[in-house]
């Protein structure tokens, strides 16, 4: 089986410890009965799902692991996902989101590659992605709900969510939970998967898929992905990008440690030792009950309070410096401004119990490959929306190689944001890049990644494989994917040309 961007290091066991829930035996029995009773669903033949419940998994809280018919993240075959839920429940979900911003789960039936899975939980997913979502003549932005169209306020308004409509659920971003309403259930080892949106600015999301694949090739922890045809309540969209979610099972595959998700609403400021004060900053993913937020709080306090000398000498005791250097270098190479220092706070922290050190985990790369291809190793990645286009004969372009977007000046490690926009920057990343103690390791990792991912043709090869994976699915828009792939190839070529002569890359 072919897994785009997923080398042998990524094929790991799917043994998943999760929290026990009450009455799981009764729920598991009901789930099995429903699965056996699954018959014809929609227009195609639906297979009742096959399950396995090894004693080790059951003891850890996994009661049902649905095998399915084919590996969901095998990109060498087409996939099909079908969601069905009640109209009233969907309206209630949208009303709740527009009124409060809360994304509540509703119950739905799901069919994946012919296997019916009843009573999954589905909810909207994303922050900036949903900014500008419209429904019933209303639009929701970070400033609240307003009537009618026109320019949307707030970061991302009119850019991310402006093409998303509540009346078109088949195009919305979804988080699918297999255990929200059936405790202990997994699908091929996963408790959750994410369905990325169908956005007008990029119908295929090739940029995100390529970025995920390159992270996998780099050796850093990343995600798996695939494309699949997708329909909701009989409404069909083109192939959607399906992405592995960083859940309890993902944490188990990383080893013995604790996984923490950074929240878009939070920051990295020390607020004292009361853990309840950090609930808007981080969410603990696994080991709930046997671990807590204290390691993260300790790291936050130290990063914010340490002198420059203490930071330089003590960071390696608290953080895998080599891994972090690769993480930071990747964000620059991938032209991803919305990383841990971006407005979405898109990252996870992994705490290794044996070494007592952290690693930063890549997450949410939908804004990769949309900035200035001439951005250097020590330049900040500027925000850029929509597929990159090369300059025309008059030198007009959304972003021109060698020239900063929007007429700004690119300076060494210049700050991004300001002017009342979203909060940018991150104390850990900013201090790391500002410290001369880590310049050498950062530049060494940057050179190695550029040589192994870009200059040697790996990125171009992966892009070809991703396009082929997209085209295998029903409803594929071949003209659109070819156009977007051509634009992305031009950006890659411009990126390689610009960096090839850079002093950091050349080692001079």
Task: Provide the descriptors you would attach to this structure in a database record.
508 residues; 31% helix; Spore_coat_CotH_CotH2/3/7; seven-stranded mixed β-barrel; alpha+beta; four-stranded antiparallel beta sheet; Spore coat protein CotH; 19% strand
Q: What can be said about this structure in brief?
A:
The chain has 13 helices and 20 strands. β9 and β10 form a beta hairpin.
- Uncertain spans: 5-45, 52-59, 150-159, 392-421
- Strands ordered across the widest β-sheet: 6-7-8-12-14-16-15
The helix tally amounts to 13
Rg calculated over all Cα atoms: 23 Å
Which range best describes the helical content: under 10%, 10-25%, 25-40%, 40-55%, 55-70% or over 70%? 25-40%
Distance separating the two termini: 42 Å
Overall number of strands = 20
Written description of the protein model:
It is a single chain. This protein is α+β, with helices and mostly antiparallel strands and 508 residues long. It has three domains: 8-121 and 168-252, no CATH class; 127-167, no CATH class; 254-506, no CATH class. Helix content is 31%, strand content 19%. It has a seven-stranded mixed beta barrel, surrounded by four helices. Strand 15 and strand 16 form a beta hairpin. Helix 4 packs across helix 11, helix 8 (321-333) crosses helix 10 (439-455) and helix 11 packs antiparallel against helix 12 (478-500). The longest helix has 23 residues, at 478-500. The radius of gyration is 23 Å and the shape is globular. Keywords: Capsid protein, Virion. This is Spore coat protein CotH. InterPro entries: Spore_coat_CotH_CotH2/3/7. Pfam families: CotH (PF08757). Residues 374-428 are annotated as: Disordered.
């Amino acid at each position: 089986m072919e897994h785009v961007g997923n080398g042998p290091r990524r094929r790991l066991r799917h043994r998943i410890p999760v929290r026990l829930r009450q009455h799981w035996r009764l729920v598991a029995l009901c789930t099995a009965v429903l699965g056996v009773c699954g018959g014809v669903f929609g227009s195609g033949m639906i297979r009742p799902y096959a399950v396995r419940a090894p004693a080790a998994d059951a003891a850890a809280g996994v009661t049902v692991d649905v095998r399915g018919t084919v590996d969901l993240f095998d990109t060498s075959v087409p996939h099909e996902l079908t969601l069905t839920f009640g109209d009233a429940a969907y309206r209630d979900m949208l009303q709740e989101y527009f009124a409060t911003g809360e994304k509540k789960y509703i119950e739905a039936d799901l069919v994946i590659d012919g296997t019916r899975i009843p009573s999954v939980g589905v909810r909207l997913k994303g922050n900036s992605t949903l900014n500008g979502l419209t429904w019933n003549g209303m639009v929701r932005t970070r400033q609240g709900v307003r009537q009618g169209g026109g320019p949307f306020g707030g970061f991302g308004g009119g850019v991310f969510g402006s093409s998303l409509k509540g009346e078109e659920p088949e195009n919305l971003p979804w988080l699918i939970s297999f255990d929200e309403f059936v405790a202990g259930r997994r699908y091929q080892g996963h408790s959750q998967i994410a369905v990325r949106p169908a956005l007008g600015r990029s119908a295929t999301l090739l940029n995100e898929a390529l970025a995920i694949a390159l992270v996998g090739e780099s050796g850093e922890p990343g995600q798996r992905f695939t494309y699949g045809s997708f329909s909701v309540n009989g409404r069909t969209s083109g192939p959607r990008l399906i992405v592995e979610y960083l859940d309890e099972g993902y944490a188990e595959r990383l080893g013995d440690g604790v996984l923490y998700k950074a929240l878009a609403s939070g920051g990295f400021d020390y607020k004292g030792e009361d853990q309840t004060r950090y609930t808007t900053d981080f969410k603990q993913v696994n080991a709930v009950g046997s671990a807590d937020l204290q390691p993260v709080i300790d790291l936050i306090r130290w990063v914010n309070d340490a002198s420059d000398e203490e930071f330089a000498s003590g960071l390696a005791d608290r953080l895998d410096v080599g891994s972090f250097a690769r993480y930071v270098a990747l964000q620059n190479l991938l032209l991803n401004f919305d990383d841990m220092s971006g407005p979405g706070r898109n990252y996870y922290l992994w705490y290794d119990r044996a070494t007592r050190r952290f690693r930063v985990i890549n997450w949410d790369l939908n804004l990769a490959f949309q900035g200035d291809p001439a951005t250097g190793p020590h330049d900040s990645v500027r925000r850029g929306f929509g597929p990159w286009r090369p300059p025309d004969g008059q030198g007009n372009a959304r972003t021109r190689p060698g020239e900063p977007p929007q007429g700004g000046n690119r300076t060494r490690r210049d700050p991004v944001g300001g002017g009342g926009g979203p909060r940018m920057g991150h104390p850990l990343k900013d201090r790391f890049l500002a410290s001369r103690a880590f310049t050498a390791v950062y530049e060494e990792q940057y050179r190695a990644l550029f040589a192994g991912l870009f200059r040697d043709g790996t990125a171009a090869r992966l892009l070809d494989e991703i396009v082929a994976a997209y085209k295998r699915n029903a409803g594929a828009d071949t003209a659109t994917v070819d156009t977007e792939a051509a634009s992305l190839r031009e950006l890659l070529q411009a990126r390689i040309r610009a960096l090839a002569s850079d002093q950091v890359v050349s080692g001079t």
